[in-house]
Specification:
The complex is a heterodimer of chains A (291) and B (415).
Chain A (H helix, E strand, L loop, with lengths): L4 H4 L11 H16 L5 E2 L13 H10 L5 E6 L6 H14 L2 E2 L8 E5 L12 E5 L13 H9 L4 H14 L10 E3 L3 E3 L18 E6 L4 E5 L5 E3 L27 E4 L10 E4 L2 H13 L1
Parallel strand pairs in A: 2-3, 2-4, 4-5, 5-8
Antiparallel strand pairs in A: 1-9, 6-7, 6-10, 8-9, 11-12
Helix pairs in contact in A: 2-3
Chain B lengths: L8 H17 L8 H7 L1 H11 L4 H10 L4 H12 L17 E6 L28 H14 L39 H7 L28 H9 L3 H13 L9 E15 L6 E17 L10 E9 L3 H17 L15 H9 L2 H9 L6 H28 L9 H4 L1
Antiparallel strand pairs in B: 1-2, 2-3, 3-4
Helix pairs in contact in B: 2-3, 2-4, 3-4, 3-5, 4-5, 8-10, 9-10, 10-11
The chains are: A alpha/beta (291), B alpha+beta (415).
Chain lengths: 291, 415
Amino acid sequence: MSSTLADLVRAPVDPGILDEHAKREVRRAILTAVCVPGYQVPFGSREMPVARGWGSGGLQITLAIVGVDDIVKVIDQGDDEGVNAVNLRRLVTNTTGAVETTEVDEATVIQTRHRIPEDPLSADQTLVLQVPVPEPLRGVERNMAALAQMHAEADYARMWVSLYEDKVRNGVITKSTGYPCLVGGRYVIATTPIPRWDIPRLHQAPFLSLFGAGRERKIYAIPPDTDVEPLTFDDVPFEVERTPGASCSLCQATEAYLVEIPPSSIGAADGRWICSDTAWCRRRRSEDNQS
Amino acid sequence: MGYAAARGGLEAIAAAEDLVRDARDLAGSPWLELDQLIDRQRLAVDRVMGEGGLWDPLLAARALQQAEGDTIEASHLLRSYRATMPRFAYSHAVDMDNAQVLRRIVPAFRNPPGPQLLGRTTDYTGRLLDRTDDDVARERAEKRASESVLLGTRESDTDELQQRIPVATSRDTPTLGGLGDRRHRRLLDVLRDMDLLVDRRRSDDPEPVDITRSATRPPAPRSAVLATMARAETGALVNLWYRNILGPDGYIHEVTLGEVRHAEVPVTVTHPHTGGPIDIGVVRVTEVEAIEDLDGADEERTRFDVGYGLCFGHNEKKAIAMANLDIACHRDRRGTGDEAGDGAGASELEQSILMTTDGLDASGFLEHLKLPHYVTFRSMIDRKMAMRSAANADDLGKRATDAPVSVDPREGDCA
């Protein structure tokens, strides 16, 4: 007997890290997610060669949607050279034949952890966000059956109350990253944890955003041209991160998400800021040199 | 440049991989053979197969070897290997009454139907660290080997690694040469005969949930809860059980164990050509029946109920915890309007089992804290500063108006 079970079912021989059936399942979940913006679509998340919590959800989405014609950019904290970004990028390019880039305008698929690139994205680009915790309401409800019901009924009253209590007790809304947003006027989502700085660029964006939570087995999406409204009150403006007087010590940018390099010792004056989006910062500097 | 720990790129990753591989593979001791692991670290191999959800002693040993003995890491290697492969078929339901018992104890009765078979266990071995000189120990072992009857009756050629992969056996053929048929009546049947058992058997025989192909969430059918526990991390299950015994948030009975079995069972699939059943191998499993004393006002207090545990390999801690949690989860549903346990209502314990016992999930998420978080941390500092500004502005405002202000005492904590 020479034929194996594999021959008999004519399964494609896939040297990759996700079999073709799994990719099809992920693509179906993505389609559902695009059709119901903001709804967390459950899927049979597979075990990836990276630990759960290290981008396994984003990786499954990227593997399911890229082909040999794609050009992939992977960033972590806005940085193409972060070790986790490097690791995910080599997994994607080594197993799919997709080409890698660090330039936003060249990329067709951008997988990211914690940031949206500073450059505007276009309609032919897809942003894949790694999601550690997809449930925006977990802070106000722990029971999963109850959470499902709250989303089903669009009952976000307790979320509003918690924001109100936050404001009353602390003077400001203290939610830092992963700010809860209402998508398409229907579902509240957790915005990975991207900083509030990045939130406005999800609103009526020309590009497709796909959110993958591998450990929690959920995929959700913000299709192009969709309303994304951070939850806040009429008289409490949504605030993004901004430090007066801070500018990038490399490219002098002020209108970018800056991360702090703390002083080397107490009282030292060498604390400074740099852009978190390293590719953007690098290009600004090279453009300065040319002009 | 700061944040050096977060940067480094491909060279740093490759260097780290080299450090791990070289320290492991180029150590001065002899090469760690896979059969060493399979024969002498049997419980670790079994545990990895169970938590990895894949029966293959050779691959599990390879995973343990590669993972430097970290069972969760080894389970991860097995599972992500499995994720590369398509699924062709589901096996037929295993009839555990056809299991060939390697060990069987029944704590509930002194003389149950069938044997009390102590088998391969350290349960009653003194926990004394044997400090015999290693060379002497080896000599003694070799001497025993030459005298041993047991080894003589084992399958012949154990030198060949291939021989270690279980071969398909007909269910009519005992696998332990000369030791006879080891299929025994289970205690559950005896209790049913004595009319001591609540009968929760279903007639509709629903398909079990495949937890590897669905996002299992509470409320979930019992099959999903059982499958989750069968693949759960052993320590997590033991802890969840003990937490419910002694912890602050729950109470489960200590059950009486009806059956604790370590056994071999055949795996059967439908042949794609003939359409008939065909045995494709044998796996070892640990099976536990846990008898629960019902005492709730709404329960059949004149009878017992039973919880069930089954997992790959020899792992009694896991199977016992699983059986006890199974019945505890069922009883915990009472009051949720879902006594039938068919998924209409969920319990807190069920969520704990489904969502917190997977080794890969828990350890992966824990270890992700090592990833750089400086984008999020900068945002958190921003909010701390904003709170201070708001508090300062508030103070200035109060002084300016000089009006009496009623102060919520809690606000003092937040200033």
